[in-house]
């Protein structure tokens, strides 16, 4: 069919008109697109640019180095060691399980570890590195590094981890760090973002726990560019964190080491304090444990063996243990009585071996009695009847008040965990606690440090230091922070009657240096170093009348946990006191036989700031002491510098 | 009407045809494709072999194809228009029956080494057939209902096949492309008014059908509409693509972040960054200046195509040129609107820039038809 030229022309015109309409609509569309482009790219550009940055720039925290803990001479008690760890990234690993199995042939890993890691890896983003193992030994670590080509997705990293070079010696006082737990986080109101870092180490107990905020430091930041899946492309900038405060403690690591070794495997505690400024030179609880185990994550077998041990290695007996102080409390009773004026130092009391109160008999430890005793003899021979008498005269409330002045029944503020207040009982206390009135018999018991009275080894050391100095010296543990020394404490006088205090000290001197003294065997013969002290033996059971008639069973025949606690407190030199020591040996038997020699040895070590010369010991003991030293595994002295500066 | 009607004496022959090629269009297409190579190199992270190199090879092959088509007289193409349409239709049905499953939709068939997307072929086949239809049809009958119903049926038949795949983007392009040819051919305004009214009604029906058994579109398409209307409603899943695309585009600012410096694309925040969303990378790295320049290049191609169509006195050649030019326009307009958040995401690539074999080849062959119409126009 042919179209007429007219038709063709008409049709072409129509097409042209319609094409112009189409072109117009298209032009309008292009204009709309251009305007939209302009709107988004010019007017809203800043807004979108911000969104793009939020997308791709992430801020990661850099954990700061934890503050060091040093001893008084700068020896490291808690440092930061290289932590060799192995991490896996799922994205690069491919066959995660296969890779983990190959890894398990190189480093110690159990089936459980593999399963746990596998679960963790699958749960997290494929680009997030997950820690497979840390705290690796260098050999294992290097084996992984060497075999890296066979282990896709596995990378080796070096970080910082807490290390306690002195192992068990400072376990109780320093505590330990561990990975932050959900429980830890739940206790904190507004947690530091650092705590969100997986496996970030925080102090759990002891100085590490109490001074956590100082030791932790401030986080640094790292701005990184990440892809949509979280893979890190590059680091944009980095601001290093501020390391935690370096804490210098008052402790002497050699003395602490010696005391720990001297206590051996006994369930015991010892506290050494400078009577002039309250510096705690050593604070030792035995048996101990290796805090490094907790940093790595303790195995359940190790943990079980620690918790099931009847000597309770995990407990810090120095501040947490509360013991009846026994005869070591007699100085308190004596001072209370003399300050009240109910007896004076020269006055004597007759000891027939017991006191009768109503129809009850309160026995002296010596069945035959001591005869007539004055204050000095009463301490020297630890006569109980003398104290039954003066305790009755002065009354419990004044005894309790004196106890608190001397540091028993009050909480001493040290950065350590679960510090006990002890008990300095009085009428109000018993009424509040048991709803019962105070009985005279309670006073008698309290007068010799039995009954309701409880004190921790720390409190006994404070008491001894206050007796020795006559001041209200308080214990302190932190000597300097970041090199800035803590202000010197200025202990104030206690305002005790001077003649009474002198008499009490003389009595304590006689305990050790008089042949009849209960601790004569533990004397120091070096004239300038002679010590004063007091033994204590506190019962952990009641002795019935029937038992007493049969003859009291000797401690050696009793099961361990029913034996008496052995206590000893002492200070030296007698003429110008420097050091006070308290020792408690749980279920050790008698204070004079068990606690006193230990306390004497530690005291000498503290006085000489090194192993004392054998000449300080009584001649008959020197061979034994020498043999004993050989058996002790002591820290070799490395810093002659430190030893000198202390001299 | 046969080739005898063409005044063959005024039509260039042999090598002289080269002089009569619509060169501005060739230059513009090459420029646009070059922008594509640049962007494909960038989104591959600086690697040529990933996307840019195959794309260059296809472009070269496509250009050769374009010239081959261009040098074949337009009357030959007019005569095979119906054939092109029906071959496309058969292939569409074949895809429906044997097509490989890709991206949740049956879109291509394997023909030896060739992976063919019949829906791409159909966009051109439909325009060719409609142009031929109106060339054949008496001009006076154009607006009669019966003669309107036939092209409508020719449009709707492949549209439904494409929708079944489902490929909403191509379906829209088919309807719009066919509609434009009909409009250019002179079909009464009334029909278009009615159709627009019907479309509004259909949209309403689509929404009404949601959740019922006769649901007209797939759930993911509904979801796309939802997230288009409110991208914040699902920022981590479906809305994520739209938001990230807009962030990339907007954050480019006036002059862009610099070539290969786009954080959104380099760090993989952008979805399908080498195909449907490649424009956002361009906008991010070259800013408003770059994006607007590309838009201008596209617009110029359409301007030259429309001018050639208007100038051509032959009804078939004229309608074909306007139809193909408009289809090209629809491609980039829909894609850009989509990534700029003006319309829902429907899955239309950016012509000549997005990575994709068939789309580019067929587009270049279609431009071959425009060239053929231009070279062999009656003078």
Automatic annotation (TrEMBL), chain A:
Membrane spanning stretches:
20-39
Composition bias of kind Basic and acidic residues appears in 621-632
Q: Where is the Penicillin-binding protein transpeptidase domain?
A: 269-603
List locations, semicolon-separated. Cell membrane; Membrane
Q: What is its main location?
A: membrane
**Annotated Penicillin-binding protein dimerisation domain residues:** 63-236
- Native organism: Albidovulum sediminis
Region: Disordered; residue ranges are 619-647
Gene3D superfamilies the record matches? DD-peptidase/beta-lactamase superfamily, Penicillin-binding protein 2a (Domain 2), Penicillin-binding protein 2a, domain 3
* Bilayer topology: Single-pass membrane protein
According to UniProt, the name of this protein is: Penicillin-binding protein 2
**Enzyme Commission (EC) number:** 3.4.16.4
Any idea which GO molecular function terms this record carries?
Answer: serine-type D-Ala-D-Ala carboxypeptidase activity
The residue ranges flagged as biased composition, category Polar residues, are: 638-647
Keywords from UniProt, A to Z, are: Carboxypeptidase, Cell inner membrane, Cell membrane, Cell shape, Cell wall biogenesis/degradation, Hydrolase, Membrane, Peptidoglycan synthesis, Protease, Transmembrane, Transmembrane helix
What the entry lists under InterPro entries is as follows: Beta-lactam/transpept (IPR050515), Beta-lactam/transpept-like (IPR012338), PBP_dimer (IPR005311), PBP_dimer_sf (IPR036138), PCN-bd_Tpept (IPR001460), Penicillin-binding_protein_2 (IPR017790)
Keyword Protease tagged: yes
Superkingdom of this protein's organism: Bacteria
What PANTHER family does this protein map onto?
PEPTIDOGLYCAN D,D-TRANSPEPTIDASE, PEPTIDOGLYCAN D,D-TRANSPEPTIDASE MRDA
UniProtKB/TrEMBL annotation, chain B:
Pfam families of this UniProt entry?
FTSW_RODA_SPOVE (PF01098)
What family is it from? Answer: Belongs to the SEDS family. MrdB/RodA subfamily.
**Membrane-topology annotation of the record:** Multi-pass membrane protein
UniProt xrefs under PANTHER family: CELL CYCLE PROTEIN, PEPTIDOGLYCAN GLYCOSYLTRANSFERASE MRDB
Q: Which organism is it from?
A: Albidovulum sediminis
Protein name per the record: Peptidoglycan glycosyltransferase MrdB
Under which main EC class is this enzyme filed? transferase
The positions making up the signal sequence are none
Where can this protein be found?
Cell inner membrane; Membrane
The UniProt entry, under InterPro entries, shows: Cell_cycle_FtsW-rel_CS, FtsW/RodA, RodA/MrdB
């Amino acid at each position: 069919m042919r179209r007429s030229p007219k038709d063709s022309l008409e049709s072409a015109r129509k097409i042209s008109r319609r094409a112009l309409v189409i072109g117009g609509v298209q032009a309008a569309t292009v204009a709309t697109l251009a305007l939209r482009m302009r709107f988004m790219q010019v007017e809203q550009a800043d807004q979108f640019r911000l969104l793009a940055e939020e997308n791709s720039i992430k801020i990661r925290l850099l954990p700061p180095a934890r503050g060091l803990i040093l001893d008084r001479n700068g020896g490291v008690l808690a440092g930061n060691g290289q932590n060799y760890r192995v991490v896996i990234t799922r994205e690069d690993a491919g066959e995660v399980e296969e890779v983990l199995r190959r890894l398990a042939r190189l480093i110690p890993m159990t089936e459980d570890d593999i399963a746990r890691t596998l679960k963790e890896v699958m749960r997290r983003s494929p680009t997030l590195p997950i820690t497979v193992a840390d705290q690796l030994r260098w050999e294992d670590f290097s084996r992984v590094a060497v075999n890296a080509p066979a282990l896709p997705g596995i990378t080796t990293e070096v970080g910082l981890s807490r290390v306690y070079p002195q192992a068990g010696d400072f376990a109780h006082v320093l505590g330990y760090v561990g990975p932050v737990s959900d429980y830890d986080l739940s206790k904190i109101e507004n947690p530091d973002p650092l705590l969100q870092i997986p496996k970030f180490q925080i102090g759990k107990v002891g100085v590490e726990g109490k001074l956590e905020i100082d030791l932790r430091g401030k986080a640094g930041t790292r701005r990184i560019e990440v892809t949509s899946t979280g893979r890190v492309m590059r680091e944009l900038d980095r601001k290093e964190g501020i390391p935690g405060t370096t804490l210098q403690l008052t402790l002497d690591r050699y003395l602490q080491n010696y005391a720990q070794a001297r206590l051996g495997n006994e369930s015991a505690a010892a506290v050494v304090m400078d009577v002039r400024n309250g510096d705690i030179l050593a604070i030792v609880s035995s048996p101990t444990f290796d805090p490094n185990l907790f940093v790595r994550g303790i195995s359940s077998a190790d943990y079980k063996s620690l918790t099931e041990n009847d000597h309770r290695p995990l407990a810090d007996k120095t501040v947490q243990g509360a013991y009846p102080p026994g005869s070591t409390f007699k100085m308190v009773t004596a001072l209370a009585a003399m300050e009240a004026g109910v007896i004076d130092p020269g006055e004597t009391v007759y000891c027939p071996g017991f006191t009768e109160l109503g129809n009850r008999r309160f026995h002296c430890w010596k069945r035959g009695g001591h005869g007539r005793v004055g204050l000095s003899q009463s301490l020297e021979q630890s006569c109980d009847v003398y104290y039954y008498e003066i305790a009755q005269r002065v009354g419990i409330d004044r005894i309790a008040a004196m106890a608190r002045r001397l540091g028993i029944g009050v909480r001493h503020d040290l950065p350590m965990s679960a510090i006990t207040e002890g008990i300095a009982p009085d009428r109000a206390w018993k009424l509040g606690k048991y709803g019962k009135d105070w009985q005279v018999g309670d006073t008698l018991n309290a007068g010799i440090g039995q009954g309701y009275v409880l004190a921790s080894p720390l409190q006994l050391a404070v008491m001894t230091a206050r007796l020795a100095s006559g001041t209200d010296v308080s214990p302190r543990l932190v000597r300097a922070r970041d090199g800035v020394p803590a202000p010197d404490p200025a202990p104030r006088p206690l305002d005790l009657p001077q003649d009474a205090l002198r008499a009490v000290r003389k009595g304590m001197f006689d305990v050790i240096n008089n042949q009849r003294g209960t601790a004569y065997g533990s004397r120091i013969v070096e004239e300038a170093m002679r010590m004063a002290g007091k033994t204590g033996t506190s019962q952990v059971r009641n002795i019935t009348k029937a038992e007493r008639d049969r003859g009291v069973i000797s401690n050696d025949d009793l099961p361990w946990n029913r034996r008496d606690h052995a206590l000893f407190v002492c200070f030296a030199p007698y003429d110008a006191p420097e050091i006070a020591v308290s020792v408690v040996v749980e279920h050790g038997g008698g204070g004079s036989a068990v606690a006193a020699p230990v306390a004497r040895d530690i005291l000498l070590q503290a006085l000489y700031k090194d192993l004392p010369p054998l000449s300080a010991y009584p001649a008959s003991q020197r061979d034994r002491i020498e043999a004993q030293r050989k058996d002790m595994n002591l820290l070799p002295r490395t810093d002659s510098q430190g030893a000198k500066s202390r001299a | 009407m046969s080739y005898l009607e063409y005044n063959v004496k005024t039509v260039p022959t042999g090598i002289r045809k080269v002089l009569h090629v619509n060169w501005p269009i060739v230059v513009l297409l090459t420029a646009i494709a070059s922008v594509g190579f640049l962007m494909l190199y960038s989104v591959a992270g600086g690697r040529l072999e990933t996307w840019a190199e195959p794309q260059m090879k296809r472009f070269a092959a496509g250009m050769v194809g374009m010239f081959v088509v261009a040098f074949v007289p337009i009357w030959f193409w007019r005569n095979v228009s119906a054939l092109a349409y029906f071959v496309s239709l058969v292939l569409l049905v074949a895809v429906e029956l044997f097509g490989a499953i890709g991206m949740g939709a049956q879109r291509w068939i394997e023909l030896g080494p060739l992976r063919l997307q019949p829906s791409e072929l159909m966009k051109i086949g439909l325009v060719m057939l409609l142009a031929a239809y109106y060339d054949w049809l008496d001009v006076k009958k154009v607006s009669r209902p019966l003669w309107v119903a036939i092209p409508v049926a020719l449009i709707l038949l492949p549209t439904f096949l494409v929708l079944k795949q489902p490929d909403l983007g191509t379906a829209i392009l088919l309807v719009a492309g066919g509609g434009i040819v009909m409009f250019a051919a002179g079909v009464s305004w009334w029909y278009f008014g009615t159709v627009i009214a019907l479309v509004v009604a259909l949209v309403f029906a689509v929404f009404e059908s949601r959740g019922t058994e006769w649901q007209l579109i797939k759930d993911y398409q509904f979801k796309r509409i939802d997230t288009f209307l409110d991208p914040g409603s699902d920022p981590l899943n479906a809305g994520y693509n739209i938001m990230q695309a807009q962030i990339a585009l907007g954050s480019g600012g006036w002059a862009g972040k610099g070539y290969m410096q786009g954080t959104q694309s380099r760090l993989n925040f952008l979805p399908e960054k080498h195909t449907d969303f490649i424009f956002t990378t361009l906008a991010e790295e070259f800013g408003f200046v770059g994006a607007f320049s590309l838009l201008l290049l596209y617009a110029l191609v359409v301007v030259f195509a429309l001018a050639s169509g208007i100038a051509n006195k032959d009804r078939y050649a004229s309608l074909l040129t306007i139809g193909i030019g408009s289809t090209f326009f629809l491609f980039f307009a829909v894609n850009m609107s989509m990534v700029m958040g003006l319309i829902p995401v429907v899955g239309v690539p950016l012509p000549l820039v997005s990575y994709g074999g068939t789309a580019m080849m067929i587009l270049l062959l279609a431009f071959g038809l425009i060239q053929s119409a231009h070279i062999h126009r009656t003078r």
